[in-house]
UniProtKB/TrEMBL annotation:
Belongs to the class-III pyridoxal-phosphate-dependent aminotransferase family. It holds the Pfam family Aminotran_3. This is (S)-3-amino-2-methylpropionate transaminase. NCBIfam families: GABAtrnsam (TIGR00700), PRK06058.1 (NF004714). One of its GO terms (molecular function) is 4-aminobutyrate:2-oxoglutarate transaminase activity. It catalyses: 4-aminobutanoate + 2-oxoglutarate = succinate semialdehyde + L-glutamate; (S)-3-amino-2-methylpropanoate + 2-oxoglutarate = 2-methyl-3-oxopropanoate + L-glutamate.
Length: 446
């Protein structure tokens, strides 16, 4: 990889954990910060680089979360930090809708170049993943003149009103926040580990969803089908081979806009620029955010020029969308990913994960499934030997890892999935050490 680090890449915990400074900050937080925003870990960050986060008490923990798949190039990438500083010194904001700037245009050109398909493409930028999803739906509705939107079981598309409606899981995302948007239809996903008929092919799973769409909505009423090529919050679910290509093909036949929500899986995370590349699909629109800008808030949609241009001038935008500092960070992040071939790095991480965890799976009875792609990999935990989800043991394993100074996150509709999203710049040694801690935690809980 040829990556150098500013902070020593070494895990260590000094005494009490969380330490006294984190405990003090937690007390201030309790008084000042709304309860609705929760944190996975009780330590407060002082510094972060590569695969290490240093807290305010000097503890160094291994990061297998990347701030939820964001800091793929590291949380203080030298090149990205320099690009941010240089842009901030010139201008932090003008609003692209008032006085435009080159970086925005350059980033749109770059996304058209690296996203799947050779057709004419255009892009537009926003701030959050949810906003990108909202805008993909806006475009699809104008372009088709239709209203219905299809999302899938286990989907996660955000927390704004429309995207809450698209998200599958009620608690904690939707509970009490209604009324939600109308004209959203939910279809059965391809979830190989949890299929009633374990031999169902991807194509058959797609036909199951297509039949439901035909019967419940009608293909000619659907504006958009939105799907994560690898589901994120829903449990790192990789659909069976053939599922996505058949859905995309049917969408094309019906004049439906096929939207791939690549907010989590995109930007080398899954082992290619986009998970769609691996799944062999060319979506009409792709949503991007998270890993795109080295930690700066930026999102966007890139897709067929004819679709995006169906919206009237002034119909899309936002005060901060495509902020120049965030755009500079994105351009540098993409350059860095190219220069260091971080897509290959993600595939190396995948291989190391599977080698280790498949072996563990053969030795313990609580690992139901080991899955994922690139540096977006997961373990689904079940009651010994069966398929019944075990959220309790999942929580316990995650807590044990955190206590040892390894940050891991959980996810899944049933709360029984441990997901790993290491920064792509993490070194092999640190990664192996984190896997070791995870393995011990799993063995200690069976
Ligand atoms: C995180 C996520 C979103 C929402 O992004 P925010 O920036 O949190 O609004 C949407 N879709 C997917 C697939 C995500 O993982």
């Amino acid at each position: 990889m040829g990556i150098t680090y500013r902070i020593e890449q070494k895990r260590h915990i000094n005494g009490a954990f969380p330490g006294p400074k984190s405990v003090e900050l937690a007390a201030r937080r309790t008084n000042a910060v709304a309860l609705g925003v929760a944190s996975a870990m009780p330590v407060y960050v002082a510094d972060a680089d590569g695969g290490i986060i240093v807290d305010v008490d000097g503890n160094a923990i291994i990061d297998l979360g990347s701030g939820i798949a964001v800091t793929s190039v590291g949380a203080s990438n030298e090149k990205v930090a320099a690009a941010v500083a240089a842009q901030a010194a010139r201008f932090t904001h003008t609003c692209f809708m008032v006085t435009p700037y080159e970086g925005y245009v350059e980033l749109a050109e770059k996304l058209a170049e690296i996203s799947p398909g050779t057709h004419a493409k255009k892009a537009v930028f926003f701030n959050s993943g949810s906003e990108a999803v909202e805008n993909a739906i806006k475009v699809a509705r104008v372009a088709t003149g239709r209203t219905a939107v299809v999302a899938f079981d286990h989907a996660y598309h955000g927390r704004t009103n429309l995207t809450m409606g698209l998200t599958a899981k009620a608690a904690p995302y939707k509970r009490g926040f209604g009324p939600l948007a109308s004209e959203i239809y939910r279809m059965p996903m391809s979830y190989p580990f949890r299929e009633e008929n374990p031999n169902i092919s991807g194509k058959e799973a797609a036909e199951r969803a297509i039949l439901a769409m035909e019967k419940q909505i009608g293909g000619d009423q659907i504006a958009a089908i939105i799907i994560e090529p690898i589901q994120g919050e829903g449990g790192f679910i990789v659909p069976a081979e053939g599922f996505l290509p058949r859905l995309a093909e049917w969408a094309r036949e019906q004049g439906i806009v096929f939207v791939a929500d690549e907010v989590q899986a995109g930007f080398c995370r899954a082992g290619a620029w986009f998970a769609s590349d691996i799944e062999g699909i060319v979506p009409d629109i792709i949503t991007v955010a998270k890993g795109i800008a080295g930690g700066m808030p930026l999102s966007g949609i890139v897709g067929r020029a004819d679709l995006l241009d169906s919206v009237h001038p002034g119909g899309l935008g936002g005060t901060y969308g495509g902020n120049p500092v965030a755009v500079a960070a994105a351009l540098e992040t993409i350059r860095y990913m190219e220069e260091h071939d971080l897509a290959s790095r993600a595939r190396e991480i995948e291989e190391q994960f599977f080698t280790r965890m498949r072996k563990l799976q053969s030795e313990v009875s609580v690992i139901g499934d080991v899955r994922g792609r690139g540096a977006m990999v997961a373990i689904e935990l079940v009651k010994a030997g069966g398929t019944e989800p075990d959220a309790e043991i999942t929580k316990k394993i995650a807590a044990d890892c955190l206590a040892e100074g390894v940050l891991i996150l959980t996810c899944g509709t049933y709360g029984n999935v441990i997901r790993l999203l290491p920064p792509l710049v993490i070194g092999d040694e640190l990664l192996a050490e984190a896997f070791e801690v995870l393995e011990k935690a799993i063995r200690a809980n069976v």
